[in-house]
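tool_log.txt
---
The assistant was asked to compare two proteins side by side. It first ran the structure predictor on the initial sequence, then on the second. Raw inputs and outputs are pasted verbatim so the downstream comparison step can read them without reformatting.
(1)
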Amino acid sequence: ATLTHRAALRLHRGAPTPSFAMRVLSMLASSPASPLPTTCQSWEASTLAGIRSLECRTTAVPPMSANDVMVSVKAVGLNFADIFCVLGVYEAANKMLSDGSPPNSGGTSQAAGSFCPGLEFAGEAVAVGAAVKDIRVGERVYGFTRFGAYRTVVVQEAVYLRPVPEGWSYAEAAALVAQGLTAWHGLVELGNIKRGARVLVHSAAGGVGCAAMQICTSLGCQSTGVVGSEGKAAWLQERFPQAEVLVRGPQRGYAEQLRALPGGGRFDCVLDSLGGKYFSAALDSLDPMGRIIHFGATYSYGGAKDGWCGLRKWLTFVPGYLSRPMVDPGQLTPTNRAVFGFNMIWLTDRVDLLTAELDAMLGKGGMTNRAPAVGATYPFEQLPEALEYLNSGASVGKVVVEVGEESKQD
């Protein structure tokens, strides 16, 4: 029950020991000022056939454990992984839809038969569990979740949350974790980049791309950012004036474009999110001991569309699938190159690694030195439209959905 200040004072006067009074005051500090929400608004899908499969529903707020924090969400960061989820091409999403949330999975509780996407959010802590020491009611926090962020209220373990940096908006805080961790894990943990390394970043004007460029800047690497239009090139060059920026052309001519870069277009590490022949050309651009890190295939699969009862998805998905690049392991050994693929969801099974990498990314990666670039914001009610804009390829920086008071339901 919530304690009033007067009740706390009466308990304090009758307390047998000072420690008892401190416990009471601690309870008061951690108690919510108003009744906690029992329901929230949630974008969910019962079938994963496309963006328009999402419906805004009223759903129950999951119960809290001693290690949890209840967050009144103010902003949600969108990712291409969300689009792959609702298209049904993301295996972890399909499994959650059929089986529900696995226990201790690092995500918001979800029942089988209904899937809520979303990996990152920011908001205000409205309740904290008894075992939570570092977060207080009323504190501004941001965090990561294994799906379930498309809600106006999220219940998540405190270990996955961090305080919003001073001066940052909720939208900026919601644009940090998923893209920052993806870039850090790819470049540092797998790519092993060091000061002076030559790094090629595909889709460099997007959320992960911008984070990768920032990490390269903080670590003293030589970065080349690849974008899809002159407008994006100008935007990226202004944000990272020391970087080389390349506007990619058609797939068949991409290898020549790389060779025309200063230094002959040779790299120590490539962060690839495109796939297709862009992947193949980037692999060939690696010097000995070079590594290509593949974490997405937006060019190959991002064009998949919803509609026509799911048929359109497969008609637009199959061509990219059939033309995906093949890697001959026998050619990696003599050229001393490595290919890595990774999925951020895997890290939720290793909370020790996830939290260690999160703190390293925030510190050594310099990700809190400069707020992430938020390129577009949409109201919560227009979340499907925000996803369609992200999927259009026209966005720069991060696309974020903001939650207003009218979006919430207690």
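(2)
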Amino acid sequence: RRRRRAGKMVVTSTRFRSGFECGRRGGSCASSSGTRARAPNRERPSPCAGRRAPPCPRALPVVATSPEEAYQVSTSALVTLSTFEQVLGKVGFGSLFATTGLYWSKAAFGKLKGHGTLEKSTMASANFALLVLLVLRWVDAGHFPLSNMYESLLFLSWGISSVHFYLAYKIPQSGVAGTLTSPTALGVLAFATLILPPELQRATALVPALKSNWLFMHVSVMMMSYATLLVGSLMSFGFLVIDLLAGEGASLPALGAAEAAAAPEAELAEPEKADEEDSYGGKRDLLETCDDLAYRSIGLGFAFLTIGIISGAVWANEAWGSYWSWDPKETWALITWLFYAVYLHGRIYKDWSPKKTAAVSASGFVIVWICYVGVNLFGVGLHSYGFFSK
């Protein structure tokens, strides 16, 4: 009875067990001898047997498991970031365009008494949009966004708009600064976004020479010096234009250091000069404003340029082993520094006429652009990287 039961169990088990398991036990599942056949061990039923299938889990986010999928995910993220950068660039361009139109319309009607709320708002929106754009490129590239010409032009446009607020704070009673700063920032931004090809607008990796903490200190200060010096030169150019249109009667007298300090008292002592100024339709006030704006801008830019040259010399010693190597960029930076030093010396210590100092300052506009861009166009020297590819 037990043997039949065991045989039945063997037959029942071999009906479901694989031949591999039966062969592993000796080639036959049933014992041929007369001894008691030992029943094989039954497999424990699965705990999930007889149960309903669990519901499908929620869809998980796509995870890149291959290089191709990782490249697709990164490309889509870059496309989204690039689209946002384009939107910010258009916002900055539109705000600067509106600011230029507002200031020029007020200048056409002779209403440049102060900075209006609308002009301040549009310029502030442009400044903020450019700042966010630079921060996004900083986060995307992993380094300070001054590695190519596109990023440097964005920073220059932002710097010019920042200088506008500095001048508006120093001289709030006149909106002359806005008539020149807003179109300059607009032109720089338009060249960066509309003229430069797309391959020069992409964020690139830094060359080994630029992988230093001095990048933020040196390059940012130099770019701010360019922005302030350009604005000061434009103010001097505006001085020359107004002086040419107004005639000789509206020209400002030469003022030395002592005479400039005593000018307010002299104006109070001679009230008859007010009638003379009114006869020229307020042209003398515009000349004085342009001369003051140029002097303040160039004074600030000269300080930035001095700090930038010193920090660049320290960085050059760490990177190349010498403080000064007469590289074309270094040479033109020194020429720019000497040029504006002559302007400040003649403006403060010499009895140069405002027209003469304005002529010197206006000429510096070309020198700054040669130092900033012109040297890099030739592709020579230690500073030839980062702007144009050969």
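---
observation on (2): The longest helix spans residues 67-108. The radius of gyration is 38 Å.
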